[in-house]
Amino acid sequence: MKIMTTANRLRGRRLESILPQIRSFFTSGTTVLGANVMILGGFLVFLFFNGQPDPRILTADIQGTIMQTETILISPTNTPFLPSPLTPTASPTSLPSPTPTPTPTFTPTAVLPVKSSIKGIKGHSQSMPLSCESRSAVDWAAYFGKSINEYKFFNGLPVHDNPNKGFVGNVYGSWGQIPPAPYGVHAKPIAQRLREYGLNAQAVRGMTYKELKTEIAAGHPVIVWIVGHVGLGTPIPYTASGGAKTIVARFEHTVIVIGYTEHKVTVLDGSRVYTRYKKEFMKSWDVLENQAVIWIE
User: Fold this and answer.
1) Per-residue pLDDT tens digits for 234-274
2) Three-state DSSP class for 258?
3) Distance between CA atoms of 97 and 268, rounded to whole angstroms?
């Protein structure tokens, strides 16, 4: 439709420009009629051929239409571009750090050193003929930071004819007797008395040599019940007044074990320190059933 409108507009302009000439032709004289006819025919031929639209104009119009059409086709829409929603990536779950398991400084199952000794413990001579247990107890307590008077400690012990329940006999009696004569006291009343002073003491019976070394290696001196100054002896069955039975021995005595080597044991006996072979020590300690007072955590 646009191409035809442009051609008609051009044709009308040309007709308007030649109409005066046509009127002049028909009003001219007869003498020039032939010439005017020829001229008129030429004009008609000219009008016919020049009335067609210019192919260059037509081509330009068609190209313009095509460009407008292409522009319409490729023009962007007004719909906004919406990107696809991103799927969130789960952050990796951090694993909690393993809690380290506390390792004891020393355990009974650990490999024991070949030798061990305890420093810083001091011994004193007992103040009374049969107060070796009290003397050993207060020296042991001093090592753990508790100062106790030997007499005061002894006077707090219960008195009984059974050494497993209290002190038997007169502390100023002769050494080497058996109950109910003046004798001494076994481990249980000594540990109980130490606990009264706030010390972590415990009486044991049937303690093994390995357990003894375990305590020494851990830095804990041990009070043990032996015969004489780690000598030989014989266990003697004894029945107390209440019917309770126990084992006693002549020359019952206490020392503090403070060290060991591959073949020997070191003891603190009152104010003296000496060593005994392991077999000799064990025979003396076995007589009174391997009694001891140990430190417990």
Assistant:
1) 999 999 998 999 999 999 999 999 999 999 999 999 999 99
2) strand
3) 48
Sign of CA dihedral 267, 259, 143, 119: positive
Residue 144's alpha-carbon distances to 133, 216, 221, 264, in angstroms, are: 17, 14, 10, 25
**DSSP readout, 154-207?**
HHTS-B-SSTTTSBBS-TTS-TT--TTSS-B--HHHHHHHHHHTT--EEEESS-
Angle in degrees, 0-180, between the axes of helices 55-74 and 2-26, rounded to the nearest 10? 160
Q: What's the whole-model pTM score?
A: 0.65
The CA distance from 167 to 227, in Å, is 17
Buried residues in 236-264 as b, exposed as e (16+ CB within 10 A): eebebeeeeebbbbebbbbbbbbbbeeee
* Average model confidence (pLDDT) across the chain: 78
Helix or strand (DSSP H, E) at 27: none
* Each residue's pLDDT tens digit, 104-147: 334 555 689 999 999 999 999 999 999 999 999 999 999 999 99
Confidence of residue 197 (pLDDT cuts 50, 70, 90): very high
Q: Are 150 and 165 in contact (CB under 8 A)?
A: no
Cβ atoms of 179 and 161 within 8 Å: the answer is yes
Interval 68-80 mean pLDDT: 38
